[in-house]
Hints:
By secondary structure, the chain is an alpha/beta fold. The chain folds into two domains: 5-239, TIM Barrel (Alpha-Beta Barrel), CATH 3.20.20.60; 243-282, no CATH class. The chain has helices at 14-20, 41-54, 76-83, 99-116, 131-135, 137-142, 154-160, 176-188, 205-217, 231-237, 242-260, 275-282, and strands spanning 5-10, 27-31, 63-67, 90-93, 123-128, 149-152, 192-195, 222-225, 266-268, 271-273. The strands form two sheets. The chain has an eight-stranded parallel beta barrel, surrounded by five helices. Helix 3 packs parallel to helix 4 (99-116) and helix 11 crosses helix 12 (275-282).
Amino acid sequence: MILRSLLFVPANSWRMITRSLSERADAIVLDLEDSVPIGEKETARWFIKDFLEDIEDKPKSSSIFVRVNSISSGLYGEDVKYAVQKTLDGIVLPKTESGNDIFMLEEAIKAEENRKNLKNRISIIPIIESAKGLVNINEVVKASPRIVALTFGAADFLRDLGRSYMQLSKDEFELLYIRSVISITAHAYNILALDTVYLGLIIDMEGLERETRIASALGFKGKFVIHPSHVEIVNKIFTPSPQEVEEAEGIVKAYEDALVKGLGATTYAGRMIDEATYKQAKS
Length: 283
C-alpha cells in the first residue's frame, strides 16, 4: 500500500467529502474526531456511510480510511458500525495508548465485518499522542496483524508534555525523539512510518517542505495533511527521483552480478556495496 499523503477530511461536510477523491492524495481520511463537533457526529457518520456506499461500483483513485473517536471517548463503537463498508480500507485510531485499545477496536471491526460478510479486510493505523502511548508502543504494534502503519499526533503529544505546538522551534528538535521512535518501531515491525500533520500556517509551503524532508530523512514513508494544497509537496518528497531510481537499479544489478561471481561485496560508482546496501536499494 502506497501512503505518501493522507488527507484529513471533516466528515460533517458533504461537499468536502465528495471533492476529496479529486485531490490526488494517496489516501483520504474521513475524520469523525477532532474536526467534528459532538453535536454533528451522527450526521458525519451517515455522510460516511452514504459516501462509501455511493462509490461501491466506481474506481477509487485513493485509499479510504476513517478516523474514529478514541477508545476512551466511548464513541468509537458507533463510528465503526457506520464506517466498516466494502469500500473502506482502514481505520485510524487516535490517542492509542495500549494494546488493549487496539484489541477493543479490532473486536468492533470484526463484529461489523462478520455482519456484512467482509472477511478481515479492514486495516488499522494507530496514532500515538501521549507519553503513555509512546512507552507502550511495542505492545500497541504487536496487538494486531491488521496494523499497516504507525503515526503520532504532534499537537496532543506536546500538550501531554506541557508544551504547545505554537512554541515549536524551527528545526523541531522537540519532536526528534518521538519521530525517531515512531520510525524505528515501524521499520522493526515492517510497517509504514507516517509523519504527523504540519502545524504551521497552511500557506507556509517552505515550512511544510522543510518538515517533510526532516521526516523523510528519519525514514518516514508518508505524511498526514490537513489541506489539499499540501498534497503535491508531500507526494513529491516521498517519491524517489529518476536519479534515485537509476542509482538503486544500478546497485541491484552490480550486486547481483557480484553474487554470480561468488563475491559478497563489490563497488558501484566508487562506493562499496554489500548485502545491506543491496536490500536497501531493492526496497
